[in-house]
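Discussion board: Methods & Data

I've been asked by a reviewer to show the raw model output for two of the constructs in my manuscript, not just the figures. I'm not sure how much to include, so I'm pasting the format here to get opinions. Each protein appears as its amino acid sequence followed by a line of discrete structure tokens. Is this the kind of thing reviewers expect to see in a supplement, or should I convert it first? Here is construct A:
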Amino acid sequence: MTEPFAGQPGAREDDIVVEAELADAAPDAETQVPADGAAPGAEQAQIAELTEALQRERAQFQNFKRRSAEEFAQAAAGGRARLLEKLLPLLDDFDRAREHGDLEDGPLKAFADKLVGVLSGEQLDKFGEPGDRFNPELHEAIQDEGSGVDPVIGTVFRPGYRVGDRVLRTAMVIVTDPEPAAPGAETPGQA
């Protein structure tokens, strides 16, 4: 891939500067006669060849920088995900303590709230609530109590967590049928 020349659209300012420096450094073919007797066109061809080689090297370096930045970002995201995965059992323990009323007040409640806040700030999302539509990519069904026509989550044994689009842990659930609509209640789409 070659970079655009100064006169082409998409040329950057540093490309123009490099081309101007090359033009200043190149001898004027009309005013100077080469000492070795080579034709002036040969020098122009050599300049064009070197300019093209320089542009290829610059493009390769830009690609290297881009790939390095992408690899660094992927490594950082992978490290963050591994750390968050290791903290999930701690969140499970806090959820069980909250269900038993052990986190209603005191220093443990403050610690749990701060930890959940920090992890939420890292885009850790909890999913898998009763009544949610069952998705086999996000939920692990350990029992199916429904007809299988329109499955929803009935009971959640273990919530699932994800960071962005990456699922760290699937939710462990019991699948059931949706609750029937109460008679006289409007269903969506009715007026």
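Construct B, same format:
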Amino acid sequence: MIDLYYYPSPNVRKIVIALEELALPYAVRWTDITAGDQFTDAYRAVNPNGKVPAIVDHDGPGGEPVTVFESAAILLYLAEKTGRLLPADPVRRWTAVSWLAWQVANHGPMTGQATHFLRYAPEQGIDDAYALDRYGREVQRLYGVLDERLTGRDYLADEFSVADIACFPWVRVAKGHGVDLDRFPAVQAWSARIAARPSAKVQLADPATGSTERTTPFTAEQFATLMRSGPAPRPRSTTEQAP
């Protein structure tokens, strides 16, 4: 059994799709990152970086439990565990790994920043024209890179792999980071192809609300918890000396 530490987000959805594709049994461990669950000592023992996703595979190598965090690492672990979702051909295999690395180093972070300044920051009265321009331009460029790669191809490494699984959940919410997929027809066709797979249709609900998506703006407290790297530092008293 695999424990999946879960909150609705593109990065976590990658792991759900992979687990469903591989038919691996998993238990959802709801981790409310708007309430700070990711900063608890118990969770940071699983992921020291205090982010989702993370997994604990209770049937890891040699039958021993293993903990894996960061979405790319989890995808590679699951592929290695099952011998699936990575091409057997070495050239295609490294192509898939390269596009997986591209997604987590470029596409994911840039689209995440664009979404933050386009959608979430305005909910809190924050309007940053420079950030919108910077991240918006880079996101458009990255979609151009993806569209060029997918032109004439069904999948990034010519067969469905962890690379496609990594990219799809962010492309699925392209509108949220200011991208019109009509401008990128190869990406649009590829996205529709993956969206038709049963694994991409799985929705996991918040046990408290029963909702699979956030439908209301974050409160100011939730925004501060979610959009920063951790709890605010304890204010230093006037009697404490600086180091």
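Answer (T.O., handling editor elsewhere):
This is acceptable in a supplement if you add a one-line summary per construct. For B, something like: The radius of gyration is 19 Å.
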